[in-house]
Amino acid sequence: GYGVEDLCQDTLRVYRQVFSNRQPRHPWNELGLKSFLHNIGGMRKDRASGEEGLTVAGLLMFGTHPVIQEEFPFYMLDYQERPEARAEKRWVDRVTLDGTWSGNLYDFYRKVYPRLIENLKVPFELVKGERRDETPAHEALREALCNVLVHADYSDRCSVLVVKRPDLFGFRNPGLMRVPLEYALQGGHADCRNRILHQMFRHVGIGDQSGSGIPTILAGWKKHHWRQPALEERREPSEQSLLTMRMVDIFPAETDQQLNDYFGEVYQSLSYLERLALAVAAVESTVTNSRLAAVSGEHPADCSRSLQNLLNRQFLEKTGRSRGSVYHLTGRSIPGPEDVFDAATFISSQGMGPDSQGMGPDSQGMGPDSQGIDAESTGLIEGSRESMGGLVVARQFDRPFIHDLSSLSPELLGKLEGEALRARDKRRLHRKEMEEIIRHLCTLHYITLGCLSELLNRNPEFLRTNYLNPMKKAGVLKIAFERSPNHPKQAYTLTDI
């Protein structure tokens, strides 16, 4: 029931010009409008009835907002540039469906992409005698913006949301992933929700339909030594997929300087992966092969060689054997539960604001507020802990601890009890639902086994054996006390990768 009269002619003109500029000798350049649309998938003819009309992809790509909303009542596109690295709704620039432009996907991409890359620095680099005007970050952002548009379920209530902040880029689209998250991260498993739409973008040099989109994004961020982007799914309040791309160094200059001061000039002779291993050990008190592989994205065999080299050169000391090996900085003991919960020496609360405790709200559903490696809590500074509002803040750890529910503020306790309510009231839950509840309870802080048991109304050993250990093995959770993994006061937190 939709035809070329429902399309924005200016959008089509620009699209065809870009297509022609990229492929000046392509035979489709000589075709009339309808024939061109048929070839790129924007129109189709029903073989049985003879009826001809727009495809869904054609309508979304080139249509006008009022006509698109006739077919998709919940259709909404929103770009927001926020001025500060904090969770707030205030914006300094916005592109949304306000009636001042066509409202279709191609024009949204054309308006938003230049805004995303506006402040990205491009170092001088020659490629085949010509200056390169893009960095891996440009490629990653182009892929992310394309992905959020072509993988969206436009029949759902959730809007497409793109956020730019000084510290991150966030992308949200309605609909869950069509392949498991681990497959999406690996690449090579293409299952696009809107294949023809993706094909239309590819014709003008945008996006990749081979399933390599997410690996391209990860690789682009890795080349800048930024923290690995976080990809996740949420089912409440509606089904949505989220990608958070933080422009945060895996470890900042302050941590690098502290390690240089601690080890001396020989530290600079180490490889990047080796220095990263030391930074993780400094911040998290310990580092393991699996943790280093998760943070760096490198193969476990490469991580193993780096850790062994650091051990041989006496940068690290080791506890345990084989896969149970845990490494820590030479001269720094691995903290145990007694160092956190039984310490008598307290530290100053300077610099321990709400954000550094992990209690600040996140940005409009853009995933857990990963804090990165903080030089204030590197573990190179000796000290124990202090109690703040029922949370125990330990110098050796980058997140606070919850170890006594009765000492928490009513607001935080109510939040935790609300997240655990379904598990506490229902003895049998689907495994994925229970794991999702545990993920929420372990976000932004460490929480002890006893507190989890009380909140979820489950036996501690049952929880540890059936949920916590498997989630740790899968890299979803990490534990606080590596040298005593089965300690009754063991505490768990969500990994920030």
Q: Can you offer a commentary on this structure?
A:
It is globular and about 75 Å long. It is an alpha+beta fold. The strands form six sheets. The protein has a six-stranded mixed sheet, with helices on one face. It has a four-stranded mixed sheet with strand order 15-16-18-17. Strands 1-2 form a two-stranded antiparallel ribbon. The protein has helices spanning 9-22, 33-40, 56-62, 65-71, 105-116, 136-150, 181-186, 195-203, 213-223, 253-263, 272-284, 289-296, 300-312, 337-341, 410-425, 431-441, 449-456, 460-473; strands at residues 43-45, 52-54, 77-81, 93-96, 126-127, 130-131, 160-165, 168-174, 230-234, 240-246, 316-319, 326-329, 385-388, 391-394, 401-402, 446-448, 477-479, 491-494. 38% of the residues lie in helices and 14% in strands.
Total helical elements: 18
Distance, first to last CA: 46 Å
Enumerate the spans where pLDDT stays under 50 for 5 or more consecutive residues: 343-387
Rg on CA atoms, Å: 25 Å
Average residue-wise pLDDT: 81
Shape: globular
Strand arrangement, major sheet: 4-3-7-8-10-9
Number of strands: 18
Largest sheet: 6 strands, mixed
Question: What is the share of helical residues?
Answer: 25-40%
Secondary-structure-based class equals: alpha+beta
Measured by DSSP, the beta-strand proportion falls in 5-15%
